[in-house]
Amino acid sequence: LGNYGIWDNAVTVTLQNNNVIYLQGYGKRVFQNNEIIYTKGFRNKQEQQAGVGTVEVVYTSKPLVSLKGISCTYAVNFYEDNAFFVQKCRITEKQKTVLSNISKKKE
User: Fold this and answer.
1) Which contiguous run of DSSP H or E holds residue 47?
2) Closest CA to 62 of 37, 40, 39
3) Rg value, the chain, Cα
4) What is the DSSP string of 1-24?
């Protein structure tokens, strides 16, 4: 859909031999139009530098409220100080419209 923005997370992780036993994090995403979503995510039993987990939208700014409650699968891979993140969600047509409108300028 062409959206971008800033992703800020706080994560706690339990490791054993550099493998993730349990990871839980909370994040804030500010999109290019300054709309915001807050998420919580989970991941377990995988490498520290890469893995697959679940993320749920727990709060949104008002225009994105239809996204609240969406649960998605994500994959992340870290390289140096960067995270490469892919997220796949099943969404309704209404949610697709809301996400598509993020890239439009605010009036």
Assistant:
1) strand 46-47
2) 37
3) 15
4) ----EEEEEEEEEEEETTEEEEEE
Tell me the per-residue pLDDT of 38-85, one tens digit each, with 9 for 90 and over: 999 998 777 666 788 999 999 999 999 999 999 999 998 888 888 788
Rounded distance between C-alpha atoms, residue 101 and residue 45, angstroms: 37
Is residue 69 within 8 A of residue 56, CB to CB? The reply is yes
For residues 90, 95, 6, 15, the Cα torsion angle rounded to the nearest 10 degrees is -30
Nearest CA to 89 out of 81, 98, 80 is that of: 98
Write phi, then psi, for 93 (nearest 5 degrees).
Answer: -60, -40
Altogether, the residues listed in the chain come to a count of 107
Which helix H or strand E contains 19, and what residues bound it? strand 19-31
Per-residue pLDDT of 17-44, as tens digits, reads 878 888 899 999 999 999 999 999 998 7
Do 104 and 5 form a contact (C-beta atoms < 8 A)? no
> Which helix (H) or strand (E) segment is 80 a member of?
none
